[in-house]
Design goal:
single chain, Rossmann fold, 7-stranded mixed sheet, 7 helices, globular
């Protein structure tokens, strides 16, 4: 199986479409290879079935141009950051060898989300240890990004990705989950305000876009400070 440049690791199918789908689509548009690893099948969801959700996830992956999508089959609502689970995730990271890994915010509404955020950080480190699953060559990603979409109550974004050209396709990918979002007014970290879900997502993306003076955006956080080589090339006007 081919390697990927960007690997998004989510607790459940549809999580990545909601919080960083535009970024994955934009990466694909720029010629980057992308992948998604869903950790649970979503068997605890109030709507649909894991089998139907898997079909919807595959359909959404095609819309986004994702080259590989896998599911580890961990228990929905009971994902734990254990040595065993870290190794399972690390094996996939070694096999796909991503440079960039995207995962959840370190805070979240669903109890699986913050656990997965830390699990992924730990697994990325473990993936670089030679004695962990020695039959597969070590690989440690360069960067872990935490998607902050719909989570404005804890940290300010380190940066925002311009997804203006990718936004409508992001909505198309989300729309693949008819069983989950057909008539929904909330989803995952998206709190309801009475509007249809797609309108909520559009308004949030427009807000993030306004932070970098573009139409639509997706926000991210990194624990490390970002580097700038040329201050004269900085974008986004102060005034």
């Amino acid at each position: 199986m081919a390697n990927v440049d960007v690997l998004a690791i989510a607790a459940h199918p549809d999580d990545m479409e909601l919080i960083c789908g535009g970024t994955l689509i934009r990466a694909h548009m720029l010629g980057r290879s992308t992948g998604i690893l869903d950790l649970a099948a979503g068997e605890m969801a109030s709507r649909g079935t894991p089998e139907l959700r898997a079909k919807e996830a595959a359909k959404a992956a095609k819309v986004m141009g994702v080259s590989v999508r896998e599911n580890l089959g961990l228990p929905d609502g009971g994902i734990q950051n254990t040595p065993e689970n870290r190794t399972k995730v690390a094996v996939v990271i070694r096999r796909l060898q991503p440079k960039i890994v995207i995962t959840h915010s370190i805070h979240g509404r669903h109890p699986d989300h913050p656990i997965v955020a830390q699990l992924v950080r730990d697994a990325c480190f473990v993936a670089g240890l030679k004695k962990v699953e020695p039959k597969i060559a070590p690989h440690r990603p360069l960067k872990v990004l935490h998607a902050l979409s719909f989570r404005e109550d804890h940290v300010k974004p380190t940066f925002v990705v311009d997804i203006s050209d990718a936004f409508e396709k992001k909505l198309q990918a989300i729309g693949c989950y008819e069983s989950q979002f057909g008539d929904a007014v909330q989803a995952g970290e998206v709190y309801p305000n009475g509007e249809p879900l797609h309108d909520l997502i559009r308004h949030h993306a427009a807000h993030y876009g306004s932070l970098i003076r573009c139409r639509y955006g997706e926000p991210f956080y990194t624990t490390e400070t970002m580097r700038v080589d040329d201050v004269g090339a900085l974008e986004v006007s102060t005034f």
